[in-house]
Write a structure and sequence with these properties.
The complex is a heterodimer of chains A (725) and B (76).
Chain A: E1 9-14, H1 20-28, E2 33-36, E3 43-51, E4 54-60, H2 72-81, E5 91-99, H3 103-113, E6 120-125, H4 127-132, E7 136-137, H5 139-146, E8 150-152, H6 161-174, H7 187-202, H8 204-207, H9 213-221, H10 226-235, H11 239-248, H12 256-275, E9 276-277, H13 286-294, H14 299-340, H15 345-362, H16 365-381, H17 383-396, H18 405-411, H19 415-421, H20 428-437, H21 447-457, E10 462-463, E11 468-469, H22 470-495, E12 507-508, H23 517-551, H24 556-568, H25 572-589, H26 591-598, H27 600-603, H28 610-618, H29 625-633, H30 645-653, H31 665-677, H32 682-692, H33 696-724
Parallel strand pairs in A: 1-4, 1-5, 5-6, 6-8
Antiparallel strand pairs in A: 2-3, 3-4, 7-9, 10-11
Chain B: E1 2-3, E2 12-18, H1 22-30, E3 38-44, E4 51-55, E5 58-62, H2 64-67, E6 70-74
Antiparallel strand pairs in B: 1-6, 2-3, 2-6, 3-4, 4-5
Classes of the chains: A alpha/beta (725), B alpha+beta (76).
Bound molecules: guanosine-5'-diphosphate.
Chain lengths: 725, 76
């Protein structure tokens, strides 16, 4: 009887779209843990696998077509399997999943996996579909040729899953069947890999690790690949000359990578000829028929627009009632708590700090849930690749690919789910570029600010014979600023921090399939949890800090002053006014208020006084807070919204100390421009940190957007004042 | 020299060589674009690029600029 073998872990590897997630869920239930590999943007998924009496962990590696790695992200899978990823258990066996319908391309990866020196088990998935299509695969013959157990599975209905489990148990038990290395490769290549490995083993002292055969192969073959780069970092660039000599010595009329690919596909053809029988003329499949519609010039385009419109509408409006409910709920809780705790620092901390901070986190859940739901659905059924296919041409010139369409579109509702959606972008550089510009898309949280300012200061004139109102036009322009600015930003980013060759758009268009509810649900749970735990902590902490900055020092003298005045006043209306003035006095005496006063010269070129500046800084915890802060500082209470007549009234009549009107059209426009371009949103930055696993990208984004917003707002104000004058 | 991007929808070709930088030609070959394989153009995206092709019993999308690296021989 074995004890739970904590030190054992298995890796699940396969091409994308083979049903890997479904098999993983079928093997581990919903017991998995999600994390990140340190230093890269790859998500790490691990679950418990029960094999008879013991539990081992199963690591779900990112789907891939080949072990050749062109970035650190792509190198993760190889490192984990070779046991050279810091902080990872060493992998004891590999479960490879192949799509039975597409056996040739799937065998390519398997032929590379066979060189890792681990026991292997093959799950031949989608067997049900293959049967339906009349594809016959002789699993026994395949197994014999490969020297690996091959188990036909249909993981969506659980067929074959128990057999896979049993085979994995046996693989762990006898640990035999180490497949031969490089049996599919030409002799001269194998010899040269042997020689390189021998040399690298002699350098073990410098490298502080034993280079495996499979890694030596990647170093030799992948010119300028990730493993070459890493080795040059370890041994110094001088090693490049030696490596070139190793490469030259393989004599062939083909480049090395072609030598590898041609040899493997030659081996694959032999195996497929012996073990697979396909109907000579494949009937037009369901996928072909569906594709005829969804990628059709007219219908396909219309369908894409409808689907994108539907998703946008869903995030924008379906989540609204839920968000209001959440808002209402936290309001009620705050009310209850206020009546339980006497007024004072403690009450304020709990109501305005803790409860509002928690609200600021939870409020994002509806939009995240809606978007993640749609994305999981579209990805599972195979449409996501079609959307990218249809939209690609629009994005090529920006250095992106069609895969950015959903993340960027979603960001018009809210950048938080939009940034999370960028996971579907396979190229690291495109993903980061998309994340960097996502907050420029005008999100729904900016809308109240626009509405307030436009309603108050833009004249309600109608243009084009009543077809368009001036106010509507300004609102439209406010939404267009971000996109317009995003274009040059992308071009610059792709030439500087994220420079490199435009990544290829060689993308599989997988067969259409009916989505599995369990996959969708598990995605919803994982992503919400990741948001709440990682981003939520940051958002919450920042909310509490901002509360503290706008609360302390809260001098008692103000209170005494106002108590005296209140005693002298009779009517409730006058008392209310005094209460509001008291709140305003506290705020202007607070750290945040004083900070605003100190930095007033900085915001003056934008036409703002310290009160506007402070409200903008204070809105970092959540954009819409700017309105509540303005309400407080202008003594109409924090319980105001963009439609509030009293707030409109006071900001219209607010003045500078010398009596000039504070707000006018140029000031309103400068604020709108600032909000359109700035990244005053801790949630966006926190999610960026979580998705890129580094503070570097949120820091870049905050810096470039704040600078842009400042300059553009200043230009708007200065130009506006010239024009008005 | 005929390249994949010059084939129209429903036309087939037999792959002769894959040109281009190391990274891109390696990627194409790993996906099965190997000399001797038959490839069929299914359709172009509505905006004229990228193209959808069928190879080794699956569907692949690639940009015309990438298809231009694939030298083919027309099949009739
Ligand atoms: N018919 C059938 N569909 C499957 C099977 N395994 C997975 N699927 C479906 O294939 C789609 C993609 O599966 P998923 O596990 O997300 O693939 P991954 O991209 O490899 O992780 C989903 O819609 C699954 O329901 C199977 O064995 N048979």
């Amino acid at each position: 009887m074995h004890l739970s073998e904590a030190a054992a872990s298995f890796a699940l590897v396969g091409n994308p779209n083979t049903g890997k997630t479904t098999l993983f869920n079928a093997l581990t239930g919903l017991s998995h843990r999600v994390g990140n590999y340190p230093g890269v943007t790859v998500e790490r998924l691990e679950g418990d696998l029960k094999l008879g009496g013991r539990t081992v962990s199963l690591i779900d590696l990112p789907g891939t077509y080949s072990l050749a790695a062109r970035s650190q992200d792509e190198a993760i899978a190889v490192d984990v399997m070779l046991g050279q990823h810091a902080g990872e258990l060493s992998v004891k066996a590999i479960l490879a999943i192949l799509d039975a319908n597409n056996i040739k391309r799937n065998l390519y990866l398997l032929s590379q996996l066979m060189e890792l020196g681990h026991p292997l088990v093959v799950a031949l998935n989608m067997s049900d579909v293959a049967r339906r299509h009349g594809i016959e695969i002789d699993a026994a013959a395949l197994s014999q040729r490969l020297g690996i157990p091959v188990i036909p599975t249909s993981s969506d209905r659980g067929e074959g899953v128990d057999e896979v489990r049993r085979a994995l148990g046996e693989a762990l038990e006898n640990r035999g069947s180490h497949p031969a290395r490089g049996a599919q490769l030409p002799q001269e290549l194998v010899r040269q890999v042997d020689a390189l490995q021998a040399y690298l083993l002699s350098e073990e002292a410098t490298l502080k690790r034993k280079v495996a055969w499979a890694e030596a192969l990647r170093i030799l073959v992948d010119v300028e690949g990730e493993f070459e780069k890493r080795l040059l970092r370890e041994l110094g660039v001088a090693f490049l000359g030696r490596l070139a000599a190793f490469r030259r010595d393989v004599e062939s009329e083909r480049p090395l990578h072609a030598l590898e690919a041609v040899a493997r596909y030659g081996w694959i053809d032999e195996i497929a000829d012996a073990c697979v029988r396909r109907p000579s003329e494949m009937a037009r499949t369901k996928t072909d028929r569906i594709d005829g519609f969804f990628t059709h010039r007219v219908w396909g385009t219309l369908a894409l627009l409808l689907i994108l419109g539907g998703i946008f509408q869903a995030i924008y409006s379906w989540s609204a009632p839920l968000m209001e409910a959440i808002d209402g709920f936290f309001g009620v809780v705050a009310g209850q708590v206020s009546s339980l705790i006497p007024p004072g620092p403690l009450q304020s901390l709990i109501v305005d700090g803790v409860i509002r901070g928690a609200g600021a986190v939870v409020i994002f859940l509806p939009q995240i849930l809606v978007l993640v739901f749609f994305i999981a659905l579209l990805e599972d059924c195979g449409y996501m690749a079609r959307a990218a296919f249809l939209a690609d041409k629009l994005f090529v010139r920006l250095g992106l690919s069609g895969r950015s369409v959903i993340p960027l579109l979603s960001s018009f509702a809210c950048a938080v789910p939009g940034i999370m959606a960028a996971r579907a972008i396979d190229s690291r550089r495109n993903r980061l570029a998309t994340i960097l510009v996502a907050p420029l898309m005008s999100c729904s949280a900016r809308l109240p600010v626009y509405v307030l300012l436009i309603g108050a200061f833009v004249p309600g004139r109608s243009l084009l014979g009543g077809w368009l109102g001036l106010q509507g036009l300004v609102l439209l322009l406010a939404h267009l600023i971000g996109i317009t600015v995003a274009i040059p930003v992308l071009l610059i980013v792709k030439k500087t921090v994220l420079r490199g060759p435009n990544s290829p758009f060689v993308m599989e268009l997988p067969p259409y399939r009916v989505p599995v509810l369990r996959n969708v649900l598990s995605r919803l749970i994982d992503q919400s949890r990741a948001f709440l735990v990682n981003a939520g902590t940051v958002i919450f902490s920042v909310s509490v800090v901002i509360w503290a900055l706008s609360y302390f020092p809260h001098p008692a003298s103000i209170h005494q002053d106002f108590e005296a005045q209140r005693a002298a006043q009779g009517s409730p209306a006058e008392r209310l006014l005094l209460d509001q003035q008291e709140a305003s006095a506290y705020l202007s005496q607070s750290v945040l208020g004083r900070f605003g006063q100190v930095v007033e010269p900085v915001v003056e070129p934008l036409g703002w006084d310290w009160r506007i500046g402070m409200a903008v800084v204070g809105s970092f915890a959540a954009r819409e807070i700017v309105i509540a802060t303005l309400g407080t500082i202008f003594s109409v209470g924090s319980d105001v919204d963009e439609g509030s007549e009293t707030l409109l009234g006071v900001i219209k009549s607010a003045t500078w100390p010398d009596g000039r009107k504070l707000f006018n059209l140029p000031v309103a426009l400068s604020l709108i421009v600032f909000f359109a371009l700035c990244c005053q949103c801790v949630a966006t930055l926190a999610v960026m940190k979580r998705e890129t696993a580094s503070w570097r990208w949120p820091a870049y984004t905050f810096a470039y957007m704040t600078v842009l917003a400042y300059l553009a707002a200043m230009a708007t104000y200065q130009l506006g004042m010239r024009l008005v004058a | 020299m005929t390249t994949l991007d010059s084939l129209g929808p429903s036309h087939r070709g037999r792959i002769k060589t894959v040109h281009g930088s190391h990274a891109i030609s390696q990627r194409l070959m790993e996906m099965g674009l190997i000399e001797g394989s038959t490839i069929e153009v299914i359709r172009l995206a509505p905006l004229g690029d990228p193209m959808q092709v069928s190879i080794h019993d699956y569907n692949l999308s690639l940009r015309k600029s990438e298809a231009a690296l694939v030298e083919v021989e027309r099949c009739t």
